[in-house]
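Throughout our pipeline, every protein is held as a single compact record rather than as scattered files. This encoding replaces a full spatial description with a residue-level series of whole-number codes. The remainder of this section carries one protein's record, kept here as part of the documentation.
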Amino acid sequence: MDDLRSLGFDVQIAADVTEAARLISAVPADRRVALVDPRFVGHVHALRLGLTDPRFAAATVPGALTAQPEARPALLHALSTATAAVGAGVPMGPGAATATVTDRTVPGRLADAMDAEGTAVQRPELGSLTAAVPVDDPARTAAQSAVAAVDDEAVRLRSAVKAHDGFFTTFFISPYSRYIARWCARRGLTPNQVTTASLLTALIAAGSAATGTRGGYIVAGLLLLFSFVLDCTDGQLARYSLQYSTMGAWLDATFDRAKEYAYYAGLALGAARGGDDVWALALGAMVLQACRHVIDFSFNEANHDAVANSSPTAALSDRLDRVGWTVWLRRMIVLPIGERWAMIAVLTAVTTPRIVFYALLIGCAFAACYTTAGRLLRSLTRKAQRTDRAARALADLADSGPLARLVAAWGPRIPGAWSAPVVAFVGAGALIAAALQQPFGSMQMVFAAVFYAICSGVAVARPLKGALDWLVPPIFRAAEYCTILVLAARSDVPGALPAAFGLVSAVAYHHYDTVYRIRGGTGAPPQWLVRTIGGHEGRTLVVAVLAAVLTQHSAFTVALTVLAVAVALVVLVESIRFWVSSGAPAVHDEGEPA
């Protein structure tokens, strides 16, 4: 009982299942309830995992069962059909209530009944933790010995760290950041507060870099590293204290992008103070990083529930994962966030912004080539049957606007397994080639953008279930972002590149927001939002028209700035509305894939 009280529960005793059902029914409808066998023997953290994780409507460990408000009707129905139980105790506390029953099979039987009736019951992995309901004295002694043999606080600290993290994070951050997370938990700090502190630290780092002085660069590098320590700490705090929330999911998913983009802008401003214009490099680094991520996201969504035999490439990858040094090498060469931020911080302190961006572009380009080649080989060497869910996710990631949807509805449907990525590639290639070759202000750029919109619609006219159809969203991202970058760079208009940086940042936020909504199982942003901001082909056409029409000294910059502000306002307002609503998924992001 004391263990339950330490988790925030009050305790009441019920004589049987009927009384337990009555006590649970009396608990306010917006609170969690649970059943725990009074003979339960186990670690406090086992109970914490089973009874307090907010992500699951219902969960169970041996001897304990919990239900959140949405699962309470299923629990009460299971209780009403239970045939036997004896003594019980019901703890009720802040935000939750718990009932315990003496029959060790009752929580398990109720969990099975709820599963059978369609209410999923989560069963967390306990690992070395003990959770048992001994039936006699020898069993109780054995269970108590098992509890004494394992330090559940040490297990709790270890489990706060992600199992599959990068080399730098695993060996240079997590060994001490987990203790910072525990320190924060014991002082009542929340993951959201730590996430916000990480953002503020990164913004100060960006401001230091913007000074353009060697001292400013050194301070910026140190603050960026400290921001990353806090970035790791917030997730570890969420896992340590099981403080998962909708707001936390949104903050964690978006602040990493805000921090990195702000830091790029700070470096570009600092370089400009020294007479070096690196805005094109900053924007190029952002474009390459965003395209890398959408390749990861698209491939993972396309194969999320694919049914197929493992490919030879996947088998080779599994064999390499059994060799220790290859695991770390493969994690490092994809330049995950820990390695990337460490490289940026060190190079900022000892070199120049131009060298920082050169290193970023080279490293990210190599990582993109490595991961894309591996995914292409996997896709070509396995015959996967992709589901309607995967096709829907890829269509959402494509971000098709009204023009592409109109063409998809009324245009031709080209047969062939590779038709979608080929058509998308042709349209994107023609668009980028026109941006590179045609004089700035040429109407040929507008015609190329129209051709791209038509190709975009044709590419998504059929369900994206082909082996390489996961390439379609990355091709669209590359076409839109690169077109904005090239037109701004070739305009030779003061302020055009910073304005383009802002526009790509706003659009990229929308695309990351789409990814994290899909990951949470709630689907893409509403269609009215996609229509309002034009879709990828609509925005590209607008930028092409602006470049052709506004050839005056500053008009193009002003137009890009207005477009960036408009897109950012619409996207941010809708995103904030969604992530703070009850419909958002209560998850904590486990970090970007690369």
Summary: Residues 214-241 form the longest helix (28 residues). The radius of gyration is 27 Å.
